[in-house]
Design goal:
The protein is α+β, with helices and mostly antiparallel strands. Helix content is about 30%, strand content about 20%.
Length: about 750
């Protein structure tokens, strides 16, 4: 952005644009016929397949509409600008709605386009505008509001509009995203996006038809603006969304067919301004939202002519009447008042709820107000929180809503402490896909024709390792990993029922192996080639189980402050687990070349930056191996790690957005990556002697992602191999200690 002055110019609109009113309601008198809204402009760029208008023309239209828009910042900051607006009420969420109706001659609006027929021109001569405005504050960050109000994909777009308009919304589509590179449009903003979208709504009255709106959406995010005290706000402090109408005849997809019983919202324009408000350590991020919508009879008449209609405004059965358009504007404003509720229920959708049937709430006092729950009168009214799993008194809970990735909404009982922690999360990257329930994605159909089969990926990576410089110095380590994977492939450790023991017993060690220590390199390469060509099937989707797919099997003890750590995440058999670590000498392992190689394989398979093999002790976690050299042999407090939650279950744990999850937002492990915190985590339990869970084999990354069946199966195989290597290394340590003791005694 060039500066605050250019931002103010763009936000306030051009003084040359006609037919728009300034903040106090007076009309602009100057007219620029060259900037008239026209649907007939063409250029040399070929039109797109889904939209019969070129991107260059879309940019020009969006710019004209943005220049003619009201200065929403004036309406937000100066109450005198609302003097001629009628206040319609204030919602429970704190949003205030205003409206006004303006009549005037055509000189006070856009000049009559030359393509208007006489019948439509008469409507333009007595042009009128209906405008509504809704404003309020939203407890979220600018990025979270952006993902909710300007979603990019069809799934997020339909989910957002369904949440805001409820049963009033039918469906919509992101028809086309314009390419702005090389157009030199909107160079003065930090981020700009331009898309053609459609939305279909339920009819506004009984004797009318359903309504469709085809519009051009321009999103602009500004790097900085000047505040009222003359200081420059933080980077990315506001964004503006402008939606201007398009003719449905210019779209070839994403709309109701011509034979459909539908009316079109001609002449409807909206704008949304979202500004970041000052915040401090004691107050979470907040933004101010202004939603403006108007119906212009002149633009509506222009669109009717563009569609080939010569009827008067309101007489075309394919266009909504001015009265129906006014009702639609009020519903747009009403939807703005639902924003706080939508934000909160999406935040709950990012949490893993407690499986209350898996454990009992044993607390005798309310975890919020410490009131005793023992008395019969109190215990009969107590409730159990769906998030932490503890019991609370009848005054310390409320009913909240949770939305999942499919758009389904569920009512929850949530205690006041959990509500505080959910509101304190980081949701800058929250999308519909990152909402629960978390699950493994099926492999795409026909994927095997274009990408390697599961199993061949590992073989290819190991072949590369054998041919690299790494192999020259780590020959034994590479061969050990290959041998374990080949033996696992032969013995089918990952069985058809998805289970496989990783503990080594005498019968397993006595079995004949395909590869031995004396096997030649050619034999190893031959077995790798067999793995590469074999069509080893992945686990069925129903067997790709995640620990947090259906619920959390342990309670969450919230800390005293929002920035504290979750307390007492300890499995019931922790004493047995710690004893297995000590008995297996796992904390004394020093030679981890094989485990480092396994971490490198896992990181490449999932496309993650970091992979770890950890041992979780009584109070500390040891990073035994990693593909990142500085992480190797590091120790950290157990309650600051992701893996403390992985060892709570025998199934793997996957977290798509750690900042949005109350369990991981404040842990130090999330910020172990310098500059950019980890968001994604996928951990498989590492098993020790007698199948005791001793640690985790995990992948982390700074970007959210999902895993597929093939990736899940590969990670499971690598986790089994890592468990075997850890056990063998522990035995080597024990053997070395025995020799040392024998030498000392000798």
């Amino acid at each position: 952005m060039a500066g605050s002055s250019s931002t103010a110019s763009v936000l306030s609109g051009s003084s040359r644009s006609a037919g728009r009113f300034n903040g106090n309601g007076s009309a602009a008198t100057s007219v620029d016929t060259e900037r008239t809204f026209s649907l007939d402009a063409v250029d040399n760029h070929a039109p797109r397949g889904r939209v019969q208008v070129s991107d260059q023309e879309l940019c020009r239209r969006a710019q004209r509409s943005a220049d003619a828009m009201l200065d929403l910042r004036v309406l937000a900051s100066d109450r005198r600008a609302l003097a001629k607006w009628k206040r319609r009420g204030r919602s429970a969420s704190g949003f205030t709605t205003f409206s006004r109706h303006v009549e005037g001659s055509k000189k006070r609006f856009h000049p009559t386009p030359p393509t208007l027929a006489p019948a439509s021109a008469s409507a333009a001569a007595t042009g009128e505008m209906h405008q509504v405005l809704a404003m309020g504050e939203l407890p979220c960050s600018l990025e979270e509001a952006e993902r909710l109000l300007s979603p990019a994909g069809d799934a997020d777009y339909n989910a957002a509009l369904s949440a805001l308009y409820k049963k009033d919304y039918i469906y919509g589509s992101v028809v086309h995203v314009a390419a702005l590179e090389g157009t030199h449009c909107f160079d003065d903003v930090q981020v700009a996006r331009l898309a053609v979208k459609t939305a279909t709504f339920v009819r506004s009255s009984v004797f009318t038809q359903n309504e469709q709106w085809c519009f051009l959406e321009l999103f602009r995010k500004y790097a900085a603006i000047t505040t009222e005290d003359g200081k420059e706000a933080a980077k990315g402090s506001c964004f503006l969304i402008t939606r201007s109408p398009m003719s449905e005849s210019e779209l070839t997809a994403g709309k109701v067919p011509e034979y459909g019983r539908i009316s079109h919202l001609h002449g409807v324009t909206t704008a949304i301004l979202v500004e970041a408000l000052p915040s401090d350590s004691n107050r979470s991020a907040r933004v101010r939202v202004l939603v403006f919508a108007e119906f212009s009879s002149i633009i509506a008449a222009t669109e009717q002519v563009a569609n080939g209609s010569s009827r008067r405004l309101g007489e075309d059965n394919k266009a909504v009447t001015p009265n129906a358009a006014r009702k639609r504007l009020l519903r747009f404003a009403k939807a703005a008042s639902r924003l706080p509720d939508v934000v909160r229920r999406r935040r709950f959708g990012a949490q893993t709820l407690a499986d209350r049937s898996a454990f009992e709430a044993t607390n005798s006092r309310c975890i919020c107000c410490t009131k005793s729950l023992v008395l019969r009168l109190v215990s009969s009214k107590k409730k159990r929180c769906h998030l932490c799993g503890y019991a609370v008194c009848d005054r310390c809970w409320s009913v909240q809503q949770m939305e999942n990735r499919f758009g389904q909404v569920t009512a929850l009982q949530v205690c006041t402490r959990c509500l505080e922690f959910v509101d304190g999360g980081e949701y800058t990257d929250l999308t519909q896909e990152t909402l629960g329930p978390v699950k493994v994605q099926p492999d795409k159909k026909g994927e095997s024709a274009t990408s390697p089969e599961e199993g061949s990926v590992l073989a290819t990576l190991l072949q590369e390792a054998m041919q690299s410089e790494y192999y020259a110095t780590r020959k034994k380590s590479v061969m050990t990993v290959i041998k374990h994977l080949v033996d696992d492939d032969q013995s089918d450790s990952v069985t058809a029922d998805g289970k496989g023991s990783t503990a080594l017993d005498d019968s397993q060690r006595g079995q004949a192996k395909v590869l031995h220590d004396a096997s030649s390199e050619e034999e190893y390469l031959t077995e790798l080639q067999k793995m590469n060509t074999s069509r080893r099937s992945t686990l069925p989707l129903e067997q790709c189980v995640l620990a947090n797919a259906s619920g959390r099997t342990y309670p969450l003890k919230m800390p005293a402050t929002v920035n504290g750590l979750i307390e007492d995440v300890v499995p019931t058999d922790d004493a047995v687990r710690v004893a297995a670590i000590e008995k297996g000498n796992l904390l004394h392992i020093t030679d981890t070349d094989e485990l480092d190689l396994i971490c490198s394989l896992a990181a490449r398979e999932l496309g993650c930056s970091t992979s770890l093999v950890t041992i979780v002790g009584r109070e500390e976690q040891l990073i035994l191996a990693s593909n990142i050299v500085p992480f190797r042999k590091l120790t950290m407090p157990r309650d600051q790690s992701f893996c403390q939650h992985t060892i709570m279950n025998s199934e793997p744990l996957m977290v798509q957005d750690a900042g949005a999850d109350v369990r991981f937002r404040t842990i130090a492990a999330r910020h172990a990556n310098p500059g950019v915190p980890f968001k994604f985590y996928c951990g498989f339990p590492i098993l020790g002697a007698e199948n005791a869970i001793v640690g985790s084999f995990c992948c982390l990354d700074t970007d959210s992602r999902e895993i597929t069946q093939a990736q899940y199966t590969t990670m499971k195989r690598l986790a089994i191999t890592a468990s075997k290597v850890v056990q063998l290394k522990g035995r080597d340590v024990a053997a070395g200690l025995s020799k040392s003791r024998a030498w000392v005694h000798a």
